[in-house]
Structure formats: C-alpha cells, structure tokens
Amino acid sequence: MKLVAVTSCPTGIAHSQMAAENLETTAEGMGHEIEVEVQGAMGAENELTADDIAAADAVIITADTAVQTDRFEGKPVVQGSVKAGVNRAGEMIERAVAAAKAGESGIISEGGVAGTASGTTSVDTDRTPAVDADADAESDAETDEPTKRGGDPEKGIFRRLRRWITG
C-alpha cells in the first residue's frame, strides 16, 4: 500500500526526525511504500508533491503543531502525536491501512474518531478516552495517584545514543 506522512514538532530538530525515520523503517518492514514530509522551525523537508499525495492510499500525520490537511481531502488521515510516530509507528500504519481498505476518508484521531479532512488541524493533546458515569465514579479514587510520564527507558533517546556510541 502507498502511504504518505507528515511529522511535525515545534522545534523540528529531533522528535519529528525520529518519527519520520521510524515511520519509514516500520512501513518498509511491513511491505508498504511511504513518503514522509518533516516540518519544523526551519520549514519543510522532503515536501510531499501533489503526485505523491494523489498516489497515496492513506495519510499519517504525527504532529504536535498545526498541519494543513486540506491537501489530503478525500483520503483517510490518521492523526496522532509525534510521540505516537516515535513509539507506535506500527499501530499508526495499521490504522491507516485499515482505514484505506474500509474506504474511509477524513481525519481519524489517535482515539479512532473520524472527522473532516479540510482546513488546518492540530493534534488534540488531551488524549483522555470517554468513560461512562459508573466507571468514572469507580475510578475517582485512582485519580489521586500521580500519572506516570514517559515510556520505556530502554527505548529512550539517551539509551539509544549510549548504545550507538559504545558500539
């Protein structure tokens, strides 16, 4: 399947590059073709052409900034944070492939909610799933505990750099 992706973070120095690299290697490992545009403070790198977009079956946007989505109209656009592109590229790709096979179009957020694919969109940073009232009442006691932040320390950038440097 042919995919296109846009990664974007406010500085565009590390995270958007890491997300782009992870999306490329994961997609190729899954047997898909992918072109990735990286947006950051310095502008866009590997900018997607109209031909790239027209040939694509689905679009993946991993961004922590606003991304123009009107050029992807009529395509399924799976959208998530840059962190999702870095840590869960396979899930993002699988969701995009499933949406393309189902004939969906429009914005599909990380939570799986479809919307429209026109205009500018920004990633929703509040990723709290909807919960019914009974479950919410039961979980009130749990909300007093601090939220664990961060991912697996073995996959962090510093750990990866250390392994790379020490060989």
Write a concise keyword list for the protein shown above:
167 residues, alpha/beta, Rossmann fold, 2 domains, six-stranded mixed beta sheet, two-stranded antiparallel ribbon, 6 helices, 8 strands, 34% helix, globular
Describe this structure in words.
The chain is an alpha/beta fold and 167 residues long. The N and C termini lie far apart (35 Å). Helix content is 34%, strand content 22%. The protein folds into two domains: 2-121, 3-Layer(aba) Sandwich (Rossmann fold); 133-166, no CATH class. The strands form two sheets. A six-stranded mixed beta sheet has the order 3-2-1-4-6-7. Strands 5-8 form a two-stranded antiparallel ribbon.
Topology:
Layout: E1 2-8, H1 15-29, E2 33-40, E3 43-45, H2 50-55, E4 58-63, E5 67-68, E6 76-80, H3 82-87, H4 89-101, E7 106-108, E8 120-121, H5 133-138, H6 157-166
Parallel strand pairs: 1-2, 1-4, 4-6, 6-7
Antiparallel strand pairs: 2-3, 5-8
